[in-house]
Design a protein that fits this description.
By secondary structure, the protein is an alpha/beta fold. It is about 35% helix and about 30% strand. It is built from eleven helices and twelve strands. The chain has an eight-stranded parallel barrel, surrounded by eight helices. β1 and β2 form a beta hairpin. α1 packs parallel to α3. It is globular and about 40 Å long. The protein starts with a strand and ends with a helix.
């Protein structure tokens, strides 16, 4: 199981939100590239990047820090937030991103997801962000009536690389991940599932690893910044 350190970008800074609320942002670094290098030096094999402003704007906003991270780090990185058309997808992949994450368009324009997954095999993931089991879009500001599992099944034959499943109520709250819902989603589809939201300790990671179904990975942010989770120790445990 891969551990993806999260770098969430707001106004050029590395931040963490509380339950997806842009007004409850804690700034952890004003140099995202330096933070990314620190994660890589500690041994991480992937980076998870989010353009928070972009998620609300519907287009890339924090392009400069993302490009700085890509220039500073040689490990693969995935990015979500404000990626809603083929041109933006192509631009980011040309700049060296290993994988783009499509969230809002997975609801509003699923045909684009299918087109992109076909054009860029292995480089397109779908971000399913849920509040009480229902998918939220546009930076988590708009809720839909779509159930996570139903939407995930719609992409079963699309050839996407992974599903990043976030329980919004757990994100940044340091209350542990929603293991039951994550495992249920992983059982429902053959697409690799990455857990996100609430991973706050080594015990949480181990619980995800041992949840009874194979997960592709887990994303952690605040716990790494707060020191509640030691990255090197976590990586060693997941490899063991």
């Amino acid at each position: 199981m891969i551990l993806y350190p999260a770098i969430d970008l707001k106004d050029g800074n590395c931040v963490r939100l509380f339950k997806g609320d842009m007004d409850q942002a804690t700034v952890f670094s004003d140099d995202p590239a330096a933070q990314a290098r620190a994660f890589v030096e500690a041994g991480c094999e992937w980076l998870h990047l989010v353009d928070l402003n972009g998620a609300f704007a519907g287009e890339p906003v924090n392009a400069a820090p993302v490009e700085a991270i890509l220039g500073a780090c040689k490990v693969p990185a995935q990015l979500g937030g404000g990626i809603r058309d083929m041109k933006t997808i192509e631009t980011w992949l040309d700049k060296g991103l290993a994988r783009v994450i499509l969230g809002t368009v997975a609801v509003e324009n699923p045909a684009l997801v299918r087109e992109a997954a076909k054009a860029f095999p292995g480089q397109v993931a779908v971000g399913l962000d849920a509040r009480n089991g229902k998918v939220a879009t546009r930076g988590w500001a708009e809720e839909t009536e779509l159930q996570v599992t139903d939407l995930a099944k719609d992409f079963e034959d699309a050839g996407i690389a992974a599903i990043i499943y976030t329980d919004i109520n757990r994100d940044g709250a340091m209350q542990g991940p929603n293991i039951e819902a994550t495992a249920a989603l992983a059982r429902a589809v053959s697409i690799p599932v990455i857990a996100s939201g609430g991973v706050s300790s080594l015990d949480d990671l181990i619980a995800l690893r041992d949840c009874g179904v194979t997960l592709d990975g887990a994303i952690s942010g605040r716990a790494l910044y707060d020191g509640a989770l030691d990255l090197a120790q976590a990586l060693a445990a997941l490899k063991g």
